[in-house]
Amino acid sequence: MSMTLAILLSALIVVSGAVIVINLLDGSRELHDYWNLDNEYEPSQSKLDWLRSSIAFYSASAVLVASAGIYLWIRHSSG
């Protein structure tokens, strides 16, 4: 396996794993903020909110599975 392909697959696995972790730890403020029980305060918007969508989660999951599959396939076929 060439070094470029190894770096590309490693980057894809790490980035897709990070997107999955961001989705799983979405930081819902309703559970932690005792003083905002009546939703008086509007939560601040984050630049990472677009990563917390179901499309990003499922796309990252597919990229993670495909990258790991390609990595294993290349490792198996190369000997």
Short key terms for the protein model shown above:
0% strand, mainly alpha, 79 residues, single chain
How would you describe this structure to a colleague?
The longest helix is centred in the C-terminal third of the chain and has 24 residues, at 54-77. This protein has helices at 3-24, 54-77. The radius of gyration is 18 Å and the shape is rod-shaped. The chain is 58% helix and 0% strand. By secondary structure, it is mainly alpha-helical.
Enumerate the spans where pLDDT stays under 50 for 5 or more consecutive residues. none
Structural class estimated from helices and strands: mainly alpha
Helix content: 55-70%
Beta fraction: under 5%
In short:
With 79 residues, this protein is mainly α.
Protein topology:
Elements: H1 3-24, H2 54-77
Helix pairs in contact: 1-2
